[in-house]
Design a protein that fits this description.
Blueprint lengths: L8 E8 L4 E3 L4 E5 L3 E2 L16 E7 L3 E2 L5 E2 L15 E3 L6 E7 L6 E4 L2 E4 L2 E5 L9 E5 L6 E13 L4 E10 L2
Parallel strand pairs: 2-6
Antiparallel strand pairs: 1-8, 1-9, 1-13, 2-3, 3-5, 4-7, 9-12, 10-11, 12-15, 13-14, 14-15
Length: 175
């Protein structure tokens, strides 16, 4: 039996846009709250005027590298607390990917996500595709259940002895 014959579901991988989220000199992420062209004075958080242009996201290390001279644009959409709203889009080339979704045999497997401990609900098997814990995935589970959305907690690259063979992803159901 081939590996491909075991992939009975279909999934779509989504990525979010972090165009105007940067990593500050303290390692935390900041989003652009006021449009500007970057100077040393507004670098988060070492620039003495950074607070005029940047607000903390509450995350760390996922933003882009801050670059002097870059024209940063303020986030157009914010939530009720003034934080930027994440925009998700289908990852290039990953719109209808064969996959297999299974309940985790090791129910209760815990992962640390930020400051939270999260329990994995499912394990997803995919071919050798580019996918990370920053993505999320929609899985089609048949006509009765339809599509379900999952957060990716961990991506394991499984080797066949020579190179990458497939990915195993631990998932949490998004409710």
């Amino acid at each position: 039996m081939s590996y491909a014959s075991l992939l009975i579901n279909s999934c779509t991988v989504e990525r979010h846009s972090q165009v105007n989220i940067v990593v500050g000199t303290d390692g935390n992420d900041y989003y652009c709250a006021e449009a500007h062209t970057a100077t040393a004075n507004d670098r988060p958080i070492s620039g003495f005027e950074y607070w005029k242009y940047w607000k903390p996201t509450g995350g760390s290390g996922a933003g882009a590298v801050w670059v002097v001279g870059t024209a940063y644009i303020a986030s157009a959409t914010t939530d009720d607390y003034g934080n930027p709203v994440t925009v998700w889009a289908i990852a290039t080339g990953l719109g209808d990917e064969p996959c297999r979704l299974m309940a985790t045999a090791d129910r209760g497997l815990e992962f640390k996500v930020g400051k939270e401990v999260v329990v994995a609900d499912y394990k997803l098997f995919l071919g050798d595709v580019t996918i990370t814990e920053q993505d999320r995935v929609w899985v089609y589970a048949g006509t009765i259940k339809g599509w379900a959305l999952y957060e990716i907690l961990l991506v394991k690259d499984v080797q066949d002895g020579a190179d990458s063979h497939h990915k195993e992803c631990y998932l949490k159901t998004v409710r």
